[in-house]
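Apea-like HEPN domain-containing protein: structure tokens wanted.
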Amino acid sequence: MAATKYLQFLLDEIGHSVHNLNTIAVSLSNLPSEPTVNPSLNIRWEPKNVKASSISARRFAIRSSIVFATELLFEYLSSISDDVFWKSTDQELNFKKPLAAHDSKAKRFSEFCKNVPGIEHEWILLVELMCHWRNRIVHASTSKAQLSSSDRKYLEEKSSDIYNHFHHFDVIKTLSDYEADKVTLKEATTLITFLIKCCRKIDEYYFSSINQLSTEYFVKTLETDEQLIKIAKQQESSKRQRQIARYIKVTFSHLPEDKLAGIVQMYT
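Answer:
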């Protein structure tokens, strides 16, 4: 499945973070009742209660993963909004454009996704909840972030479907845990799954939109490509033609073969 460089970065980073989160969870679960500290760590660690410290450390890691994944989401949406091809499709979708004087990134995410085909409403609301959770973690003393009552009701009504289709994910419990700020490992990783599903659909929309741009448009964008200009200045030869064709195909790898052939032909 094709992916923009923005999505690939998000997937790589989230993949590492989830692996690390699971590693931390497993390691903490295997701590002996009287652990010893490796002297090479050069730290002082003398917990009064190892079990309590393990629970606290696990909670810290899970909450950190929520913040990290949400920041990656915001970066993905900002990057794709700035993409020259995205802008050239006359899209009004722009994550960086405020909706109102005091809007939030969580709300901007939701409004952005509502205009993207294929994203289920419950996915949007669950990722918005994750964004609100991030705000509560980072701005604990001041944040009042929450879903609207109608959005909560919608998720509650969809709870059975979500439970049956997403590894017994309990929406009702998650909403309750959000109010108590008691996020679990399963809740964090499942919310991250919904985040990825939304981003994949945005990527699909990106590709389907820019594929509608004319061949002439893509050729024009190559006029200022310094690397291609350097290749084109070589002496006329079959090698030069192959290098140009290969460069164009790599640069526009998301385009179908017939359009790529047209760009190569028009450019050369």
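Residues 50-82 form the longest helix (33 residues). The chain has a mean pLDDT of 92.

Cheers.
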